[in-house]
Amino acid sequence: MLELGYALSSEEHPPSDLVRFAQIAEETGFSFALISDHFHPWISKQGQSPFVWSVIGAIAATTKTLRLGTGVTCPTMRIHPAIVAQAAATAASMMPGRFFLGLGTGENLNEHIVGNKWPSLVVRQEMLEEAVKVMRELWKGGNKSHRGRYFTVENARLFTLPEEAPPIYIAAGGRKMAELAERIGDGLITAGDEGPVIKQYNAAGGRKKPKYSQITVCWAKTEKESRRIAHEWWPISAFAWPLLSELPLPQYFEEAAKSISEDTIAESVLCSPDPEQHIKKIQETAKAGADHVYVHQVGKDQEGFFDFYEREVLPKFTKEKAA
C-alpha cells in the first residue's frame, strides 16, 4: 500500500523551521518524513545546514505518529559509524517504532571537511558495507571491538538502546549500488531513477523490502513563479550524480549552475500549481515500484505547499486507501 511522506530539506531551512514543518507534515496527513544530513548546503542561496541529530531530537519530542529517517547519512568519513550507531540508537529510543536510518556513500561536499582524501566509489561502497556491519553489531548490546579494513572500534558498548534496532534503508543509484543496498539494508531509497534501480533491487532479492522514492516539486500560485523558484533554489536537480558526489564546495555548484536554464530545471522538478500534475507524478513513481513516495517542496513557501497538498493531493490517495 502506497504511503506518502515529506522531505525535510536541511539545506534550505533553519532548525526550528524544520521542527515546525515536521509537526505540520504530521497534521497534514503525511505518514513519514526524511531529513537530509549535510554539512554544507548545495549552493549558498539555500543558506542552511544544521546538525541533523539535534533536529531529530526536537522532532522526536514534538511529534507523535510521524515516522522519521535520515535522507541520508554517510557513516564513513565525517562521522565514525560507532557514533552514528549511538545517535541512531538514541533517536530510535526516543521514537519507538518511528525512526529509521537512511544511509548512503556520501558526497565530497560534506565529507571532505575532516581532511581525508575523497575515495573512489568502489572504496566508498566497501566503507559503507563495513560501517553497517559495525553499527548492527553495536546495536546487539554488550562490549564490542572491531578491526576492519577501514574502521576500528575498541571496547565500545551502547548503553542506550531501543527495544528494536532501527531498520537501515540504503540510498542507491545504478546496478551495483542497488545490489549492495539489497545485501546490507532493510529497504531502498531512490531519487529520480527509481525505475531501473528498483527493478535491479527486486532482481537481487529485495522484492518484499520497502522502497522509498523522493520526488522534487515546486508548488507556487503560478507555473511561472514555480519555475523561477526552482531555478533559483534547486539548480542541482539538473546535475548528474557523478557531479553531485564529486564537487567539494557550494561555490563550485554555483558555477556549474550558471549554464542551467529554467527549462532544464523544469524537466527534473515538477513546477506546477495543478494538482493533477502532482497526483500523476506520485502515481508514476509508485508504478515504477516505490511503495513510499516522499515529496520535496523547493523554496521557502512550505505552508502554501502543505495547504495545497492537504486540499488537493492527499485526499486522492486517502480515498484510494479507503477503497
What would your notes on this structure say?
This protein has 323 residues and is an alpha/beta fold. The protein has one domain: Luciferase-like domain (TIM Barrel). It is built from 13 helices and eleven strands. The chain has helices at residues 15-28, 52-62, 81-94, 108-111, 121-138, 175-184, 194-206, 223-233, 241-246, 250-257, 262-268, 275-287, 302-322, and strands at residues 3-8, 32-35, 67-70, 99-103, 144-147, 152-156, 168-171, 187-191, 211-218, 270-271, 292-297. The strands form two sheets. An eight-stranded parallel beta barrel has the order 1-2-3-4-7-8-9-11, surrounded by seven helices. Strands 5-6 form a two-stranded antiparallel ribbon. Strand 3 (67-70), helix 3 and strand 4 form a beta-alpha-beta unit. Helix 1 crosses helix 2 and helix 6 packs across helix 7. The longest helix has 21 residues, at 302-322. The radius of gyration is 19 Å and the shape is globular. The model has no long low-confidence stretch (mean pLDDT 97).
Structure at a glance:
This protein is an alpha/beta fold and 323 residues long.
Task: List the SSEs and their pairings.
Blueprint: E1 3-8, H1 15-28, E2 32-35, H2 52-62, E3 67-70, H3 81-94, E4 99-103, H4 108-111, H5 121-138, E5 144-147, E6 152-156, E7 168-171, H6 175-184, E8 187-191, H7 194-206, E9 211-218, H8 223-233, H9 241-246, H10 250-257, H11 262-268, E10 270-271, H12 275-287, E11 292-297, H13 302-322
Parallel strand pairs: 1-2, 1-11, 2-3, 3-4, 4-7, 7-8, 8-9, 9-10, 9-11
Antiparallel strand pairs: 5-6
